[in-house]
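Margin note from the TA: students keep mixing up input and output lines. Inputs are the sequences; the output is the structure of the whole complex. Example:
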Amino acid sequence: MSDAAMRPHDMLPLTPAVFHILLALADGEKHGYGIMQEVAAITDGAMRMGPGTLYGTIKRMLEAKLIEESDERPDPALDDERRRYYRLTNFGERVAQAEAARLALLLNVAQSKRLMGGT
Amino acid sequence: MMNHRTIQTPLLSLSERVYRMLLIAYPAAYRREYGALMVQVFRDMCRDSYRQGGAAAVALWWCSTLLDLVYTAFEQRRKVRFTVSKSTFMRLTGVLLIVGGAFWSLAAFSQFQPDDHYTYYGIYQLLIWLLAPAFLLVGLGCFGLGLHIRPTLGVLGQWALYGTGIGALVMAVGVVGTSINDDLWNVWMAGGLVHMLALTVFGVLHLWKPALPIFRALPLMLASGWWVMWTSALRTTSQTTNNTLSFLFIVGMGMVWLAIGLKMHRQQSQELVPAAS
């Protein structure tokens, strides 16, 4: 199935692990450990995926064509050849955007109902 | 830069070796595809933890990794419809008992909850997150042991181990059930009683005719631990003493299951060498 034939909204809502990995890859390709570090950084350490969750989720995302393996090495001098790098597909990027829009909508509702601190 | 890759200590080497061994819990195809990558990530995270907080941080990383391993291995096995053959199940026995024993020992820290023990909060939540999976894994491991010892101890020995396993599985249900309804504490106790009695029978049989690659009195010593726990619960002294004794007994039991698992795993690995060469 081509990217164009797949509808991002069919994938929603995403699980937290999938969305966090999409976010981690949004600014460039990364290997597994890089994804874990990025996820820990963007959640301020609150989400720390184990190797099983990480690669189980990556496997599902590869099957759903949200991400793909990359042959390129951002910095070969500093890297281990055995590592596999992953990057967002065009479809994965559209799914991430759709999920972000869905969450933003919910956030607006929460704000309007005064459920957010300080509003 | 990349400093984390240069740290190497016996603790990190051992951690990596144990984690690599535990990957047997995943289906073979999944292991071939992602096993090496998972070990690599595990090693990197271990080094990070060690650099940030020493051995204690590595221990914490191990706790979350063990939970992650149990749940994701179950998930991956479920996807391949649990096509576990009898021989594979027997081969998994060691790993089931190693992980179960480790969970069991770690769950002992729940005994340091200073107040009411009948509601799951604070450190007592370890019972749900660690002891229930431990009972489940040890229960399954007992079924695997039952398949191993049949030629030596016959049907009685095999069913004594099946009874031990059934008791452990019932306890797992009881632990989780108690979090929903306090009355299900009785299920936990019933499972414990079945487990203890069946383990005692197996312990006596094993003393008479050792069938496992372990010290012949070890199963009976394990059963004795249960008897002591069971009876000392009726003779309380002080809360602190009880908590410490319970902690020691639970850690001890977990370590015994872990030791049995290690021995079984080593024996199975040795048996596989000639076949592979």
